[in-house]
Specification:
By secondary structure, the protein is α/β, with parallel strands linked by helices. It is built from 15 helices and 13 strands.
Length: 391
């Protein structure tokens, strides 16, 4: 592919990404992968160059662009040599008069007021930095020092006692230690959520929104004898946990839930859990450095829906905690409505519940919880709060 053909491919891909973001379709990674499966003639250098163009354009714009062409023209404002490729053979059509050009930005304008006050504008560039690859050692089967000796270029993470950090784009899924279940890829902030739970071997633990089970696996590694139930309403995601648990040597029960009947389907856990972890669905604003297109997907209506779901999940979790038990609530979000304000609202509804200090070393106090941010903690953005039901 010529440089002009690569630029045209990037425009076509960005058109697909924009449409998918608007319609809540597949993520950009999947779209790029599918695009090149259908174009086997493109070599590895072509694929890499086009992918880099696409994601540079995505990272540059906070607002959903009008088109892929507008997005690339915006990118050309920062990289003027791209303009020379318009009108070349197999490249983009020649430039016209008064074409739309996507603006640059980090945070969509409508979200400025939604951000936690802790996330100052000076921290915004860190929200889009390329994220490192963090590993979480399976401490039930290996020590961090043992794994560090096997991983070239790894350093210990600053906050998690289980973490190892590698440069961005490091690949470890074919490493023998990974295949043996000795570590998982997991952002340090995500590891800290499990650390905030302080799981014990004699406890009954419910991971209410387990997804593919990343945090269930941390809890099982930290408390191998605990009774752990991982639940979710997404069959495809939850089905990924069993093979991961077998690889890690962890015993984790799974249960598929059918909203809004969760409480009925968890009758055997009602007021019986020592710990309920709610890693709730959210805006994903804390993961923009990994998923920059998430800014294009989020709308006021989608945010309203997810905030309402979080509220319902908190009430559900509260009904599952036994007297004296605890609940840990977490979202990978930097928005106050999903974090501090959500917990303030819960404590108004459940006035007997007690807010506890969140036992992690990182983050800053944010209402009744703590907020981790890329700029302050070098992790993904997470809000985490710990609550206790009175005896």
């Amino acid at each position: 592919m010529t440089p002009a053909a690569r630029l045209q491919a990037a425009i076509e891909l960005l058109d697909e990404v924009i449409a998918s973001a608007r319609d809540d379709g597949p993520p950009a990674d999947s779209i790029v992968t599918r695009y090149f499966k259908q174009r086997r003639y493109a070599g590895s250098k072509d694929r890499r160059a086009v992918r880099e163009l696409v994601f540079r354009a995505i990272r540059r714009g906070a607002e959903l662009p009008q088109s892929g062409r507008a997005s690339v023209l915006g990118l050309a404002e920062d990289e003027p040599t791209l303009i020379d490729r318009f009108g070349e053979p197999r490249g983009p059509e020649p430039l016209g008069q008064s074409e739309a050009v996507a603006s640059a930005g980090v945070v969509p304008a409508w979200l400025h007021a939604e951000l936690s006050p802790l996330v100052s504008e000076g921290e915004w560039p860190a929200l889009l930095e390329r994220a490192p690859v963090d590993l979480r050692v399976n401490v039930a089967r290996a020590s961090r020092d043992e794994i560090l000796q096997q991983i070239a270029g790894g350093t210990v993470t600053a906050l998690s006692p289980w973490g190892i950090r590698l440069p961005p784009d490091s690949r470890v899924d074919d490493h023998p230690a990974f295949e043996a279940g000795l570590f998982e890829v997991q952002d340090e902030g995500s590891q800290l959520i499990a650390l905030a739970c302080e799981p014990s071997d004699d406890e009954r633990i419910l991971d209410l929104c387990a997804g593919a089970g990343g945090k269930s696996l941390v809890l099982a590694a930290a408390a191998p004898v605990a009774t752990i139930l991982a639940t979710d309403s997404n069959r495809a995601r939850l089905s990924k946990l069993d093979p991961r648990a077998r690889r890690a040597g962890a015993t984790i029960e799974t249960r598929l839930l059918n909203p809004p009947r969760e409480l009925e389907e968890l009758a055997d856990w009602r007021e019986a859990a020592d710990l309920v972890l709610i890693d709730a669905p959210c805006s994903g604003s804390g993961t923009w450095r990994r998923n920059p297109e998430g800014r294009w997907r989020l709308t006021p209506e989608r945010l309203d829906r997810v905030v309402g779901l979080q509220r319902r999940l908190l009430d559900l979790g509260a009904d599952l905690v036994k007297p004296g038990g605890r609940m840990v609530y977490a979202v990978c979000s930097l928005l106050s409505r999903e974090g501090a304000a959500q917990i303030d609202d819960f404590l108004l509804r459940r006035s007997s519940w007690i807010s506890e200090a969140t036992p992690i070393g990182g983050g800053r106090p944010d209402g009744a919880g703590r907020l981790l941010t890329p700029g302050h903690d070098r992790t993904d953005g997470f809000f985490v709060a710990r609550l206790r039901r009175p005896c």
